[in-house]
């Protein structure tokens, strides 16, 4: 398959999947469709024993392309949210070692992509942040995204962080457990590859089964039909108040 928003670099026994969709790597339909496909295909490819998901230097992903998603009509919104849920499902179900190299800013929906990984290495930088700040625009956090965030932070801390619209620097994210390493951005990919190689040294069946056993609750989050979840997100985004907020956000982007 020819991907339009990601690149795939094959190494000796693993692959580096780099987000490569537009100036700031906003998450759109093309990207989540590509991610769903690549994680599904590589999970079944015996020549690929692990994946690193990365972004560009200083810019992992700016999060969801919310203006075009929310204001492009119900059909396009449904397509995006369906693929996004299915991409998260494929990433969480990926049975092999999966490391995320957070090479820059990664707020909101990009944070959720990173949280699908087994291990996260984040680059230090003034604008390099992770976290869910949807309340800044009075927007609801979709159920699956909320579930994944709460799985990693715990319900109480996740709810407090969402209320405070908390965006964590790499060191802060390390402290609360959202990432596993905080390093110079130039070292992110190298550190990610070193950790992946460490996991690849483990007997594959042992790694796969232990990963399944210790992530039962996370796997349960995506072991369901997403039809109703997608409908709920669409209904929320279709609310007149939310549409007005997004329109104002769009207008401010033009200034």
Number of strands: 9
Order of helices and strands: EEHEEHHEEHEEHHHEHHHHH
Q: Briefly note the structural class of the backbone.
A: alpha/beta
Largest sheet: 6 strands, mixed
What percent of the residues sit in helical stretches (DSSP H or I)?
A: 40-55%
Report, as a whole number of angstroms, the end-to-end distance: 39 Å
Based on the structure, what is the oligomeric state of the protein chains?
Answer: single chain
By DSSP (H or I, 4+ residues per run), the number of helices equals 12
Query: Could you say what the CATH topology is called?
Result: 2-enoyl-CoA Hydratase, Chain A, domain 1
Backbone shape: globular
CATH H-level homologous superfamily name: 2-enoyl-CoA Hydratase, Chain A, domain 1
CATH C-level: Alpha Beta
Give the strand line-up of the largest sheet: 1-2-3-5-7-9
Write a short abstract of this structure.
This protein is α/β, with parallel strands linked by helices and 255 residues long. It has twelve helices and nine strands.
Structure write-up:
With 255 residues, this protein is of the alpha/beta class. The protein has a single domain, classed as Alpha-Beta Complex (2-enoyl-CoA Hydratase, Chain A, domain 1). The protein is 52% helix and 15% strand. It is built from twelve helices and nine strands. Strands 1-2-3-5-7-9 form a six-stranded mixed sheet, with helices on both faces. Strands 4-6-8 form a three-stranded parallel sheet. Strand 1 and strand 2 (15-19) form a beta hairpin. The protein starts with 5 loop residues before the first strand and ends with a helix. 43% of the residues are buried. The mean pLDDT is 95.
